[in-house]
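To close the section, here is one more complete example, presented without commentary so you can practise reading it yourself. The ligand is D-malate.
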Amino acid sequence: MIGPKIGSVFTSGECILQGSVSVSVHGSGIPILMVHGFALDHRMWHHQIDAFGKEYRVIAVDVPGCGNSHASRNQSIAEMAIEIFEAVEPHFEGQAAIYMGLSMGGYIGWEMISRYRTAFQAAVMCDTRAAADMPTTAEGRRQMAKKVLEEGVESVLAPMIPRLLSDQTQAEQPAVVELMKSMMFRVPPQTVHDHQIAMSQRQDFQPSLAIFDLPMLLICGTEDILTPPKEMKRMAEGLPNACYVEIETAGHMAPLEQPVIVNEHIARFLQQ
Ligand code: MLT
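Output:
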């Protein structure tokens, strides 16, 4: 597989600022909203933007504080969902959209879909969970939030990379590792702090899975240690209309690590 080009613009859509949210729009058709994970930006979706940005209207955002978006201080996950929705909704042009989120992008998705249910017709949730943090996880986030302000982003984010990518990706796809660094190391320390605090306080959607009655595709890397297959499978069983697929040899970043197979699953789901 050919790895991504580093630091370049992968796709033709220009980033425009809608309020403080950077939005890039590609193609026309049914809208697909793509929301990236923690400390990343819209480039994590570049294979999906290239694959779906012709037949669909792909709308890829940078979460406030990441990529080209401006920071909004101390936002909750719910406030991020509202701010992003208000920025992208005009691009839906009256059509119900498909939500696509990875990890923290999934946390934002539960908030957004639950608030604006009729604006969405389907969702693809990658390497994420609906449950809130366990107390020990929340405490770890508070420690990271403190440390990043004292020591900077590389000291807290570099050790995350081996936990985000499978061993095989790290060994065989150096371009993916480089892209991860180029996204992560540009995120301001204050954003890392604020997003960790926001995630530690996010709502628990596990008891409300039944409200997410739209068709949903759940995708999980078999080597994902952050949101492991066992947990995503259990979540799929609690959702009224979900199917679940595992992606061999991928870690937490399945759409970036194994884009060909992930895109096949997404294409099949979208055609149903
Ligand atoms: C992410 O990839 O967005 C993070 O791993 C989410 C989290 O820390 O829970």
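Once you have examined the tokens, check your reading against these statements. DSSP finds twelve helices and eight strands in the chain. The mean pLDDT is 94.
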